[in-house]
Amino acid sequence: MAPIHQVTSLDVVLLLSGLWLLSKCLRLLRRRAKSTYLKGPASKSFVFGVSRWLSERKDADASLVLEEWAEQYGAVFRMPIPMGRTQVVLFDPKAIQHVYSKREAGYIQPPATTIFIADMIGNGILCAEGESHKRQRKALTPAFSNAAIRKLAPVFLDSAYKVKAAWDVLLESSIDGDAIIDVQGWMNHVSLDTVGIAGFSRDFGTLQGNHSAIAEVFESFVMLKQTFFQIAVFILSTAFPILILTPNPGGTLYRNSVRTQRKSQGSCSRQPERRRMGLVKARETIP
């Protein structure tokens, strides 16, 4: 009698893994056969593509490297990403406009991005696709119409004047009239104060140097140093989206920022309305 082979759980796992890998390879070959051939840089690694190489570059920003590739390979080129796959990069404004305007027609964001956004801020318009995204965008359109934006113009001008006044003080206080200004940091304060006034009718006061818990959380992202393991998990999440849920300091900071924003929103809703948009008379700030 022939020996009977018992199927173990390991055999099942190996079989399923092999079938999954085979389906991925067949899908990749089919996609390459049907899609238009695009030029692009050579892959640095089958596992990481060029993602790890871009993240570890010290001599140039990743956006500058992409601009160099656009000049070399054209406004539309392919870029190697993890696990032997490629990603189409668009530098043509008309192509970008087409993708964003026709998103509900079939242009969807990567699964890892959807999982990341849903985990951090919940399932909203940023996670929606197809008809759901179209319906939610239609509901939000009145808030972003020309008339609505025009009403917020005083808020933007108010922040611009505050920045100008602060920069004038820095230049006047310098000995030779020159000063090094952290423009990115100031723009972050402009964004935070503008959103606070326009969205909640409250001034966070970061442009005046006031302490803000939300600003502190955002600044901590800049100071965060990730390990090789965390970078590898983030890069490989494009191929294995479930990895985006792996616990890491960056995710903890994001969740803390969400909790801080919700507390600030609650604080704004409980306080009486004392400030009108565009006016600079309110003395009260929120943490």
Characterization of this structure:
Helices cover 56% and strands 4% of the residues. Among the domains are: 33-101, no CATH class; 152-270, no CATH class. 10% of the residues are buried. A hairpin with a 3-residue loop joins strand 1 (76-81) and strand 2. The N and C termini lie far apart (79 Å). Helix 8 (153-173) packs antiparallel against helix 9 and helix 10 (213-223) packs antiparallel against helix 12 (249-270). It is built from twelve helices and two strands, in the order αααββααααααααα. The protein has 287 residues and is mainly α. It has a two-stranded antiparallel ribbon. The protein is globular and about 75 Å long.
Task: Briefly say what this structure is.
The chain crosses the membrane at residues 228-246. The chain has 12 helices and 2 strands. The protein is mainly α.
Topology of helices and strands:
Elements: H1 9-34, H2 51-55, H3 62-73, E1 76-81, E2 85-90, H4 93-101, H5 111-121, H6 130-140, H7 146-151, H8 153-173, H9 183-200, H10 213-223, H11 228-236, H12 249-270
Antiparallel strand pairs: 1-2
